[in-house]
Design brief:
The chain is an alpha/beta fold. It has a single domain, classed as TIM Barrel (Alpha-Beta Barrel), CATH 3.20.20. The chain has 11 helices and 13 strands. The protein has helices spanning about 35-45, 65-75, 110-120, 140-155, 165-175, 195-205, 245-250, 250-265, 265-275, 290-300, 305-320; strands spanning about 5, 10-15, 20, 50, 80-85, 90, 100-105, 125-130, 155-165, 180-185, 205-210, 280-285, 330-335. The strands form 3 sheets. An 8-stranded parallel beta sheet has the order 3-4-5-8-9-10-11-12. The protein has a 3-stranded mixed beta sheet with strand order 6-7-13, with no helix packed on it. Strands 1-2 form a two-stranded antiparallel sheet. α2 (about 65-75) packs across α3. The protein is globular and about 50 Å long. The termini are far apart.
C-alpha cells in the first residue's frame, strides 16, 4: 500500500481508506458483527491504515453501531491506524423507509458530548481526524474551530476536518484552527467538488473522497435488474440505480471498460486511480463488506495514469451524457 500525507498537517494515511458506514447503515440491514470484525482485521493486514466512521452511522435500535463495531474490532491495532469520525448531525425519523434527512447541531456543548461519546465507543483516548459532518447555520465557523482548537490542545483530537462546507466557511474556520482535510462526495459522476481543489492546494488541506464509486455503480457489478430493500437501503432511491439509468450511462460504462482492459485493471480500480493520480493529497474511502472488494480497491494504488491520460478522461466525462447521481441527504437546521 502507498501512503499519503493529508495537506500540510502531517497526518499520514494509506492511499486508499476504508469507509465503514455501509457495514451498519444505509446499505441494507447491518452486516454480521463477527464477519465485519474479521474484515477490518484483514484490512489492517493488507495495509489499510485509515478507517472512516461517524457517531450517526447506525440503526434505530443502535444509532451508534458503527463506532462500536470499529472500537472493538480495531482496538488490537490502534497504534497502527488512524480513525476518523464525525459530529454534528442526527438522522430525522430513522425508523422510516427512504433516505433520511439530517438535522445539524454543532453547539459547543453538543460537540463536547459527542467527542466523549465517540472516544468511549471507539475505545480510545484520541480521535485522529474529527470532522464536522455538516455545517450548522446557527453556529459560526469560528466557534466550531475554537472548540476544535481546545480539543486538540487537550489531546482528545489530533486533527480536524469539514464535510460539505462552503469555501467561505472553510477559510473562516481554517483561520482559527488549521483544517487537515475536507471530506466531500467525489466520483466520475460527481465532479462538482473539483472547484475546491485550488483552495485546498492553497491552504494545504487534504481531500477525502467519499462515495468514490458513485455508491458502487462504477464497480460495474450492478445491472438494471438489481433491486434493493426500500426499507433500509438508500440505493433503492438513488437515481443512478434506477432501471433507466443503466441505458443513460452506457458511454460511461464503455469508457471504464476500455480503460480497465488497457490497464489490466477493473472498472473500480480505474475509478479510484483516476482521482489518486490527480492530486497527491486525495484519498478515496470506498466502502465494502466483502474481502474480494477490499483487495480490489487496494490494487488501485498500483495503477498509474499520466497527466495526459487524466486530461483525456476528464474531457470525455465533460462531453458525456450520463444519469443523475445521488448528491446527498436533505440537510435541515435544528429547531431553535
Amino acid at each position: 500500500m502507498d501512503y499519503r500525507t493529508l495537506g500540510q498537517s502531517g497526518l499520514r494515511v494509506s492511499a486508499i481508506g476504508l469507509g465503514c458506514m455501509g457495514m451498519s447503515h444505509a446499505y441494507g440491514a447491518p452486516a454480521d458483527r463477527r464477519d465485519m470484525t474479521e474484515l477490518l482485521a484483514d484490512a489492517v493486514d493488507m495495509g489499510y491504515t485509515f478507517f472512516d466512521t461517524a457517531e450517526s452511522y447506525g440503526t434505530v435500535d443502535n444509532p451508534h453501531d458503527n463506532e462500536e463495531l470499529l472500537g472493538e474490532a480495531l482496538k488490537p491495532f490502534r497504534d497502527k491506524i488512524a480513525i476518523a469520525t464525525k459530529f454534528g448531525i442526527t438522522f430525522e425519523n430513522l425508523a422510516a423507509p427512504g433516505v433520511h434527512a439530517v438535522v445539524t447541531d454543532s453547539r459547543p456543548e453538543v460537540i463536547r458530548r459527542s467527542v466523549e461519546g465517540s472516544l468511549r465507543r471507539l475505545q480510545t483516548d484520541h480521535i485522529d481526524l474529527y470532522y464536522q459532518h455538516r455545517t450548522d447555520p446557527r453556529v459560526e465557523p469560528e466557534t466550531v474551530a475554537s472548540v476544535m482548537a481546545e480539543l486538540i490542545k487537550e489531546g482528545k483530537v489530533l486533527h480536524w476536518g469539514l464535510s460539505e462546507a462552503s469555501v467561505e466557511y472553510l477559510r473562516r474556520a481554517h483561520s482559527v484552527c488549521p483544517v487537515t482535510a475536507v471530506q466531500n462526495r467525489y466520483s466520475m459522476m460527481a465532479r462538482w467538488n473539483e472547484a475546491l481543489f485550488p483552495v485546498l492546494q492553497e491552504l494545504g488541506i487534504g481531500f477525502i473522497a467519499f462515495s468514490p464509486l458513485a455508491n458502487g455503480l462504477l464497480s460495474r457489478c450492478y445491472t438494471a435488474t438489481d433491486h434493493f430493500d426500500v426499507a433500509n437501503d438508500y440505493r433503492a432511491y438513488m437515481p443512478q440505480f434506477q432501471e433507466d439509468s443503466f441505458g443513460k450511462n452506457k458511454a460511461l460504462f464503455s469508457l471504464l471498460d476500455e480503460l480497465a482492459e488497457r490497464k489490466h485493471a477493473t472498472p473500480a480500480q480505474i475509478s479510484l486511480a483516476w482521482m489518486l493520480c490527480k492530486k497527491p493529497w486525495i484519498v478515496p474511502i470506498p466502502g465494502t463488506r466483502k474481502l474480494c472488494r477490499l483487495k480490489e480497491n487496494i490494487g488501485a494504488a498500483d495503477i498509474s495514469l499520466s497527466a495526459e491520460e487524466i486530461k483525456g478522461i476528464d474531457e470525455a466525462l465533460d462531453a458525456m451524457h450520463m444519469s443523475d447521481v445521488f448528491s446527498g441527504s436533505l440537510v435541515k437546521s435544528r429547531a431553535i
